[in-house]
Design goal:
Elements: E1 7-10, H1 14-23, E2 27-29, E3 41-43, H2 45-64, E4 69-71, H3 80-85, H4 88-91, E5 93-98, E6 105-107, E7 128-131, E8 134-137, E9 149-152, H5 157-161, H6 164-170, E10 177-186, E11 201-211, H7 217-234, E12 242-246, E13 258-265, E14 274-284, H8 286-290, E15 313-315, E16 320-322, E17 325-332, H9 333-344, E18 345-349, E19 355-359, E20 370-374, H10 380-393, E21 399-401, H11 407-417, E22 421-425, H12 427-432, E23 434-439, E24 445-449, H13 450-461
Parallel strand pairs: 4-10, 20-21, 20-22
Antiparallel strand pairs: 1-18, 2-3, 5-6, 5-7, 8-9, 10-11, 11-17, 12-13, 13-14, 14-17, 15-16, 18-19, 22-23, 23-24
Helix pairs in contact: 2-9
This protein binds adenosine-5'-triphosphate.
Adenosine-5'-triphosphate (ATP) binds at residues 187, 189, 198-199, 202, 204, 276-279, 330-332, 334-335.
């Protein structure tokens, strides 16, 4: 195909990504053989690699590259008292309305212009609270035994708060320091939808950054917003597609004094394209004090008679004991996967109107780093050499061997799944021990000695650098 003066087109809507994701093995509708399960999705062979690469990038950036953050992995099901004292049992509500005309249910804050999103009518019931924590029962007990009630966590954060002292004492940490966790959370969303943007089971990457009550909390919120903007840039998400939303006081969660949401342009086709990608909240000392046995209310009564621990911190320099405040950047893995795919998507159309999809994933996120392609699959020497090259690259980078089509088709398939490099083994390779390396974005080809190949590719695959953290 001749791509003179190609026109690049970004993803026009989420549906384009849904179709690519299914066609190329990134994301499949879940339980499809039984007609699906409303808005549940499964990651396929390429999707699991992309999502793992995002999680690894996040973990490396926070837990390894910085010196002030530890990682943990807490249980999904916690003692249900955690959710009583965190405030989730009483307040983790969405406001629900019924459309009197079509009988469907919606989240009240998602109704635009008082019109039913399904039938267009404007006749709703009064809104009422609906607790979105998913319940389960533990143990072989009677169905109505209240002591068996448990919840699937709606956020990973509480697992961090209840482990604050464990981490602080075992790792001998002094403030400020953070604890990071990545894992599944569950919310019984009233209206899940828009592909992996809103599902009932999803993954979060949360970090709780513990600081003194006298720290400059608002400045720290700004600091983490800036850090995350850089991290998203390193994942290939364009700054133009991000927007900062200062959550108004009246909409803040019960624990928050300030929250800034980073919104992504998930709906480029709409007048209001933005939806939340992540939030950065100053959660005050609410969580550590609410889980502590010694914290007293205004009348001098213990606010938590069930806790057996006090999650306060003794500050050696000031000789003071206090409950640390927390700055929390909470990001969604699935929403990051979707933003990354939307930003990476591009269509190249030539002057004859022929179109090709190229997924411009950053090399660090690409599910496959190099595809090894034999030019002639009926030549055993070429096939043997290509397979040996694949095996030799595997210890240093993710490589695949593919001979399921002509070379043009193989290149097109790798472009569409974002593979940065195609390595072609041809007749000449048998003579000169060299291969052709083709670049996904420029389509330029370079001849490289097989003995230099691993080093050559590794150099070009280096993750995009993120500025080192400033001194705290
Ligand atoms: P929304 O207003 O969109 O429901 P939220 O403000 O309730 O989101 P948070 O409680 O701040 O979300 O959770 C932190 C992050 O977890 C969100 O920014 C998002 O990336 C992710 N997240 C939350 N709910 C879902 C969901 N149902 N599906 C996928 N990701 C989610």
């Amino acid at each position: 195909m001749n791509f003179v003066n190609p026109v690049f087109v970004p993803a026009p809507n989420i549906d384009t990504i849904v179709s690519l994701a299914k066609r190329r093995g990134f994301v499949f509708p879940s339980s499809e053989v039984y007609g699906g399960l409303g808005s549940a999705w499964d990651y396929g062979p390429l999707g699991v690699e992309l999502s793992n690469n995002i999680k690894q990038s996040w973990w490396r950036w926070l837990v390894y590259d910085r010196d002030d953050i530890e990682g943990i992995d807490s249980s999904i099901i916690l003692n249900s008292l955690v959710w009583k004292y965190s405030g989730h049992e009483a307040t983790f509500h969405d406001w629900l309305v019924d459309c009197r005309n079509c009988k469907d249910r919606f989240r009240a804050d998602k109704i635009v212009d008082n019109k039913c999103p399904k039938c267009g009518a404007s006749d709703f019931t009064e809104s009422r609270p609906f607790n979105t924590m998913l319940q389960t029962r533990l143990g072989a007990v009677a169905d109505d035994d209240p002591s068996a009630l448990a919840y699937l966590r709606p956020e990973t954060a509480q697992g961090i708060f209840i482990n604050f002292l464990n981490v602080q004492t075992t790792m001998r940490r002094k403030l400020p320091f953070g604890v990071a966790q990545v894992g599944k959370s569950f919310r019984n969303e009233i209206t899940p939808g828009n592909f992996i943007l809103r599902t009932r089971e999803f993954e979060q990457m949360e970090m709780e950054y513990f600081v003194s009550p006298s720290a400059e909390h608002s400045k720290l919120v700004d600091y983490w917003v800036e850090q995350y903007l850089e991290w998203f840039a390193s994942l290939g998400v364009s700054r133009e597609n991000l927007y900062l939303y200062e959550v108004p006081q009246k909409d803040l969660a019960h624990y928050s004094k300030r929250t800034v949401d980073i919104m992504y342009r998930y709906f480029p086709e709409r007048e209001k394209p933005w939806e939340e990608l992540m939030g950065i909240a100053w959660r005050t000392d609410f969580d550590l004090s609410t889980h502590s046995k010694n914290k007293l209310d205004a009348e001098g009564k213990r606010i938590n008679p069930d806790s057996t621990e006090d999650l306060s911190y003794f500050d050696e320099p000031t000789k003071q004991r206090f409950y640390p405040h927390v700055i929390e950047p909470a990001a969604g893995v699935n929403r990051t996967v979707l933003a990354v795919l939307m930003d990476a998507y591009s269509e190249k159309t030539n002057d004859k109107g022929e179109t090709r999809v190229i997924l411009k994933l950053t090399p660090q996120l690409a599910p496959i780093k190099a595809a090894i392609l034999p030019l002639a699959k009926n030549k055993p020497e070429i096939v043997g050499m290509a397979k040996a090259i694949k095996r030799s690259l595997q210890p240093v980078l993710r490589a695949v061997y593919d001979d399921t089509g002509g070379i043009g088709k193989l290149y097109a398939r790798q472009d569409e799944i974002g593979t940065p490099f195609c390595v072609t083994v041809d007749h000449q390779s048998l003579e000169d021990e060299a291969v052709t390396v083709r670049d996904r974005d420029t389509w330029e080809q370079e001849r490289i000695k097989v003995s230099d190949l691993a080093e050559h590719l590794q150099k070009r695959l280096k993750p995009y650098p993120i500025a080192p953290p400033e001194a705290q």
